[in-house]
Amino acid sequence: MMNVLNVLTRVGLVCSTVLIVFSLELSAQSDKPPFAWVNPLTPKELKVAPGLSHHTFKSKLINKKVGYCVFVPEGYDDSENRDRRYPVIYMLHGGRPGDESKYANKLPYIIEAIREGDLIPTIVVLNNGGPVSHYNVPGRPDARGKDMFVEELMPLIAKKYRTIETREGRALQGYSQGGRATARIGFGHPELFSQLVIGSAGAAAEKRIQETGGIENENLVFAPGDDMWTYAEIYAKNFEKKFPMEIFLHVGDAMDSNYEGNLAYDRYLTELGLDHTFVIIPDQKHGGSAYVKIHDDIIGFQDDAFRKSMKRK
């Protein structure tokens, strides 16, 4: 009898612990700020990234004011550089929903690389991907993240800043959800970019979307063919020779579906005949610390790719 009571007591304690944890998680979720189209930078973010600033534009596609951030390298405003044009890295944040301030913490690594001469002086743009980050969702007028990025933000940056006006001076980079979007948008618009950095993208989820004709889940359905596998195939078969791109794929080595999906995507790009770099980060789970571990490799790749593409031009 005592053994049964002990077991029941332990079960009760476990259940209580689970309920407490669950309540804390719900509390944390309720404390999370709601989605916003405008997310100003904090004083700390501005302090650690000199040259970074926050702006807004009025989107005609969704009829709302939308936030974005731009970093310009040291010397951009100097009179001797007034005729100089700069390459651009568009960094697509991870997670859903969107927030243009998410990747501000990556800028100190880029600033240091530019100062050390490891990266050509470069403009960096951080966007807000919308409620379903960087994606278009049929039937949802507010979820046109891809169109807003390609049709509105990129032309705005080209107009307001002294960017290199051709694809040779544009890079697209993203992690997690942003990695998925980098593959979708990059392979879907190779006329716009010369290099892609696809970080820990949910390739397995994208494969299911491809195989089901656009279904991610019962509440989220994309247009058929709007996935990173289909776009890569179309690019390889029809546009790779006309619009060559440098491609960098990376994922942490934690054994999960994300890891397995990226291994499969690496094999797929190889089967398609697309030259690319694939890096597996040791002792790395899915998370923001991946960039900290691999930023030297990514920045070195981007610098080499910019110099190679601009020389080819």
Task: Kindly summarize this structure in a few lines.
The protein is an alpha/beta fold and 313 residues long. Helices cover 42% and strands 17% of the residues.
Blueprint of the fold:
Layout: H1 2-31, H2 43-48, E1 52-59, E2 64-71, E3 88-92, H3 107-115, E4 123-126, H4 145-160, E5 170-175, H5 177-188, E6 195-199, H6 203-211, E7 215-217, E8 220-221, H7 228-238, E9 246-252, H8 257-271, E10 277-281, H9 289-312
Parallel strand pairs: 3-4, 3-5, 5-6, 6-9, 9-10
Antiparallel strand pairs: 1-2, 2-4, 7-8
Molecular structure report:
The protein has helices at residues 2-31, 43-48, 107-115, 145-160, 177-188, 203-211, 228-238, 257-271, 289-312, and strands spanning 52-59, 64-71, 88-92, 123-126, 170-175, 195-199, 215-217, 220-221, 246-252, 277-281. The radius of gyration is 21 Å and the shape is globular. Helix 5 (177-188) packs parallel to helix 7 (228-238) and helix 6 packs across helix 8. Strand 9, helix 8 (257-271) and strand 10 form a beta-alpha-beta unit. By secondary structure, the chain is α/β, with parallel strands linked by helices. It folds into two domains: 1-32; 35-312, 3-Layer(aba) Sandwich (Rossmann fold). The strands form two sheets. An eight-stranded mixed beta sheet has the order 1-2-4-3-5-6-9-10, with helices on both faces.
Strand order of the largest sheet: 1-2-4-3-5-6-9-10
Order of helices and strands: HHEEEHEHEHEHEEHEHEH
Determine the structural class based on helices, strands and strand pairing.
alpha/beta
Helix coverage percent: 40-55%
What does the average pLDDT come to? 89
Which term fits the overall shape?
globular
Provide the β-strand percentage band: 15-25%
Give the count of helical stretches: 9
- Largest sheet composition: 8 strands, mixed
Q: How many domains, in number, for the residues?
A: 2
Regarding CATH, which class of the largest domain?
Answer: Alpha Beta
What are the segments in which pLDDT stays under 50 over at least 5 consecutive residues?
1-30
Quickly give the CATH architecture of the largest domain. 3-Layer(aba) Sandwich
CATH topology of the largest domain: Rossmann fold
Q: Provide the gyration radius in Å.
A: 21 Å
CATH superfamily of the largest domain: Alpha/Beta hydrolase fold, catalytic domain
Number of strands: 10
Distance between the termini: 83 Å
In quaternary terms, these chains amount to: single chain
